[in-house]
Amino acid sequence: MAEQIFQGIELLPEAKAVEQLFILLHGVGAKSSDLVPLADKLRDAFPSAACLLPDGTFPFDGGGNGRQWFSISGVTEENRATRVAEAIPALHALVRHAQDRFKVLQSDTALVGFSQGAIMALEFSVVHDGHVGRVLAFSGRFAKLPEKAPELTTLHLLHGEDDPAIPVEHAYAAYERLMDLNGDATLDVASSVGHEIHAALTDRAIHRLQTCIPLRSWKQALNSA
Fold it and tell me: Which of 49, 65, 154, 156 has CA atoms 20 to 30 A from the CA of 217?
């Protein structure tokens, strides 16, 4: 069963129970091993975490041995959202299977995506609000800006100011829309950084994970008071 749902790299804590779960989604045409350096940084910060680096659902239709979550052949602003929506069920099955396997709560699960992986993670947060506690979206975008913000998932948007592949304007637009919808999100933009998982952004991501109290927790505290 596990072989059918998960193909990729597993980095598990040594001699410790799993307390957090990170699922890292690579970019289009890439492979799971490309995200090992990021996973290592997350494991240093969270020694009790399991990091799963799945291979994209489909072979990259641009050639080579890379993978993709959805096809970008002939992709447009009009059809991108449909392609992403069609790819979400397979990701949802992977996330639920991993949570059940490691007995990790949804609130202690984070989806971490780069580029196309970030697009998937952001869409997942809207379609399956609360099924993960956090989303870290590096150099990503919404396929289509949401009409409703996630209430039970905190989104951390991380982007390079000089990104030529997915311009930073998408990150600003996403953050503005989430704020208008009373969503729970942060935005970090690194100057002189392109389309990459830069050390400045990974440091900010870990800082956000360690220090950012979810908006829902603040609301619960205020309601209790």
Answer: 49
Range of the domain at 134: 2-224
pLDDT tens-digit series, residues 175-209: 999 999 999 999 999 999 999 999 999 999 999 99
Write phi, then psi, for 24 (nearest 5 degrees): -105, 125
Strand pairing report for 20-25 and 49-54: parallel
CATH of the domain at 165: 3.40.50.1820
For residue 118, how far is the Cα from the chain centroid?
5
DSSP helix/strand/coil, 146? coil
| SS3 of the chain: helix, strand, coil, percent, to 5 | 40, 20, 40
Angstrom distance (rounded) from CA 58 to CA 73: 13
Q: Which residues are catalytic?
A: 115, 163, 195
Tens-place pLDDT, residues 53-93: 999 999 999 888 999 999 999 999 999 999 999 999 999 99
How many CB atoms are located within 10 Å of the residue 177 CB?
A: 16
How many domains are contained in the chain? 1
**Three-state SS at 204:** helix
Q: What's the CA gap between 39 and 9, in Å, rounded?
A: 10
Q: Which residues make beta-bridge pairs with 22? A: 51, 110
Average pLDDT in the chain: 94
